[in-house]
Fold each of these.
Amino acid sequence: MNEILVATGLAVVMLAAPLVAVEPLEPGYKVGEPLQLFVNEYRVTGPQPGGGPDLVCSYARRPVVMVYAQEISAPLTRFIKKVDEATGAHQKESLGSYVVLICDTQDREADLKALAETEKIQHTLLAMVVINESELNKGPEWRTRGLKRLQAKFGGEAEITVVLASEQRVRASFAFRKGELKDNDIDRILADLPKILPKKD
């Protein structure tokens, strides 16, 4: 009997305890900030595979959806497919999009290639940046600084960071911890596309 009373009392206390809401994660980029150059990403798909200029420069004259991720997950894959569809639907408005995987080994290139092939990603460029001790010590100094700045902007708690930009300025930005990106978040992000698309007359 005493055990039942104790269990009941604990249940009441747990129900009465206030639920602590997790605060939304602050994105590394704030609305209104100019885009920064970090390092030349390694392009896995799209024109100039393997090389090419910094993606910020490549998309400087276009409205663009920029996605930085530390892991390829099911929610991220669903989001990339939606972004790819939106990019294709807004070709007349010159909408661009790219995904940068921040990882610690070049082996992840195979994962991005498989993603592009399996999900038939046609309009969204997939790229990667390898950040590990060897890369950070490789130099030159400007490159090391760029890697560290990119890591600081999009690393840490954020598994996925999304930036909507036009004219090289941030118009909307979002950051999600592991497991936080849901379908309603994807819809919310895509609903913000008019913020970067050219105004219709």
Amino acid sequence: MRTITKVAALVAMLAVPAAGFAGQAAPAKKAPAAKSAQPAKAEKGAKKVAGHSTSGTVKSVSDTQLVITKSGKKATDETFVVNSSTEKKGTIETGAHVQVRYTMDGKSMVASSINAAAAKAPKPAKKGKK
């Protein structure tokens, strides 16, 4: 009988602290704060589309196409597909300097946004001294 009482007392003493620890949950890890500038994550299996950016002078423009000439040592022409989802800012006209954000669709460069600065006016001729 004494043995059973001692065992019961020992079990009770061990059970009380164990129950106290079991009631405590592990501290929850803080979730990283969501950045408002970050786009929403795509569904699993969807490919992430890489965005590119370039700038140059407009050579020609239409409703479906934009051709710019990149400046530098090797001046090259680049042709972009323009569609209804392309965001356009400023007046996009021949001679205007533009910045183009685009994505690759196969071998085509599809413009996602076009920002245009006003075309530079030609410099006036200098007056000579008389």
